[in-house]
Amino acid sequence: MYHLRIVLSLLFVLNCFSDNSIAQTKTYSKQEITNLTDEASRYLKESNFEKSLDISKLALRSSINANDLYSTAISYITIAANYAEMAEFDKAIFFYNKSLSYADKTSNDTLRKRINNNLGNIYCFEKKQYEKGINFYENSLKYSQKLADTNQVFMTKLNIAWAYFDIGLFEKGFPSLEFINKYNKKYGDVTNAVAVNMLNGMYYGYKGVPDKATSSFINAIKFGNEGNEKSDLSFSYLEYSKYLLKNGDYKNAYENLTQYNIITDELYNEEKIKKANLAGINLELDEYKREIDKIETEKVAQLQSLRKSKIIVLLFGVVFCFLLLLLYTLFKNNNFKKKANEKLSQTNIELLAAKEKAEEASILKSQFVSTISHELRTPLYGVVGITNMLLDEHKELAHSPHLSSLKFSARYLLSLVNDILQINKIEDNRIVLENLTFNISDEIDMIKSSLSFIAKTNDNVLHVNVDPSIPEFLIGDKLRLSQIIMNLVSNALKFTKKGEVSINVNLVKVEGKTHFLEFKIQDNGIGIHATDQEKIFDKFVQVSRKETDYQGTGLGLSIVKQMLGLFDSDISLESAIGKGTSFKFIIAFEFNPERTTEIINNIQVDMSSTQTVNVLVVEDNRINQVITRKTIEKNNYKCSVVDNGYAALEILEKENFDVILMDINMPLINGFETTRKIRLKGIGIPIVALTAFDKTEITEEALSAGINDIIIKPFDSIKLFEIISILISKPKSIA
């Protein structure tokens, strides 16, 4: 960086030696230039071409010196208009194009509109190149419409109609004439009344309507004599004479033609044109002089550049020597970096080896957790299924607290298995909370019942205090809430002997439909040492306990903290050795009676079915076979069960089924391979994977094998029958 500063300093010194002072011509103010262009335009309207050109020349020189693009374009427009009036149309076109080149460097669409319109006039009515002229008119019309300049749209339409009529294309010009007639009262005035009436006369003459044609021409001549539009008046006499000649009225045709010649001679006085030509020659010489001045200015700049180059050559030697020194320094640094890089390369090799070992260990850990979770889900499916069967077959046990606790505990254990498996997903905020309706007192009572065994084991009393002002039904994720409270209460019960544990729920505030509940789990157990309180929420952390204490996995409080994060909440802790521990947190739930009713209605699904559906279950576990069969037959479906993939292939050759529920982890041949063989036989029956594997682990292979959907055991029967209903309603096709 230091070397770079030195180089920049040398270049700055070099620049200071140069002489940047260039003689400048006097520049006019913007208002002075505007006054000149306005004066030139005024003389043009008075047909004083000499004065108009002289002033335009001065305005042009001033606007170029001032780098005023707008005024430069205006000056060229006035010059071009002078030449157009003097019938020097090639020069007019040249200067209009010059003005257009400057107008295009600005954002002024008004200039472009005006120039295109004037070029259209020259090409159509003077050069008789109508196609080219009409293209310029169309460009002008585009800019006028963009600017919402309705008056100019009116005038451009008039010019387009005139151009088409001039070459006899009356039908092409009629839409423009129709527009003019429609908006004449709104946008027309005395300046274009002559042309409007003349065009109507030409059109009615073409259509063979003599009364309207004659009336229109007479009105055109009348307005022309009353106003100052001598050019339009002359054309009205000319077109009227053509019309009269066509209809055999030679006398009146001659008289109108005579009037045309008189006005034309008046407009183009030879003496005025002669003087204007002299002014025009001077203007062209001025253009050449401007080019020469430009070349001279470039020569002066080159001389200054040469003087600057001499200094550059001198300084270049100094810079070159400095660069050689810099290169030598870089060479030395490069050698030093080379040695350092060799050491870094060796370190990177060692780090890469360590990384590969860590990744291998991570894969083995993931496989282990996946296997354990699969093995846990399979017996849990049996526990949940048998519990449901007992409740269905023995209605007298429907209100049994023991059976309800068993069912609740099994589902809680299943949720805990899933959370341990996907703890990384929790940390990445990929778990979305559910919105279900629930009664907070019922949930707390269920937790109390489920933990009554632990309470009795340690001779503890579990108290529940729920604020009566809390609404009966709230909306939120009751399962996650239950997991949080069960973790905290079970910890309190395990580390309290012959004591008391209380669950307190209070309504602390209400904001609209949101109710904030404070949960406080308090015990009078052994307490937690102050040095351990900051780390107990970390994963796999065990604070010092006696050997007889329950140790657990060290994940309970970590999961609690992460789940509270999903609720946008945090947990606080107060504890003292020998006095007990108190955990406290606040969660916001929604209270919305209308939405609660809607949620309840949505979950009240009719599980009965009058449709005869034949289901094939491929499952090797005997207990799971019984549970799945009972669940399916309870919904009035027919069910056949086989215990391996080969048996499934065999029965499919004899019977027809509407859907197949396929276990994945089976002996002899797994569910994926069985599905592939079924599809190879051309059988398009929908297949649902009924598995204890995590869904994310098998989705890709399941789809490639031809499986239509996946449901994880233990499953929600409502969800299963919804999937079956959707699949059997679709046409059968080979996946």
Give a description of the structure.
- It comes from Flavobacterium algoritolerans.
- There is one protein chain.
- By secondary structure, the protein is α/β, with parallel strands linked by helices.
- 65% of the residues lie in helices and 10% in strands.
- The chain contains 26 helices and 12 strands.
- Strands 2-4-5-7-6 form a 5-stranded mixed beta sheet. A 5-stranded parallel beta sheet has the order 9-8-10-11-12, with helices on both faces. Strands 1-3 form a two-stranded antiparallel sheet.
- Strand 6 and strand 7 (580-590) form a beta hairpin.
- Helix 1 packs antiparallel against helix 14, helix 2 packs parallel to helix 4 (69-85) and helix 6 packs antiparallel against helix 7 (130-146).
- It is elongated and about 130 Å long.
- The two termini are 65 Å apart.
- 30% of the residues are buried.
- Mean pLDDT is 81; it is low at 1-24, 547-552 and 604-609.
Topology:
Elements: H1 2-17, H2 30-45, H3 49-65, H4 69-85, H5 89-103, H6 109-125, H7 130-146, H8 150-166, H9 170-187, H10 190-207, H11 210-226, H12 230-246, H13 250-267, H14 270-393, H15 401-421, H16 423-427, E1 436-438, H17 440-450, H18 452-457, E2 461-466, E3 474-476, H19 478-494, E4 500-511, E5 514-523, H20 556-566, E6 571-576, E7 580-590, H21 593-603, E8 614-618, H22 622-634, E9 638-642, H23 645-652, E10 659-662, H24 671-680, E11 687-691, H25 695-705, E12 709-712, H26 717-729
Parallel strand pairs: 2-4, 8-9, 8-10, 10-11, 11-12
Antiparallel strand pairs: 1-3, 4-5, 5-7, 6-7
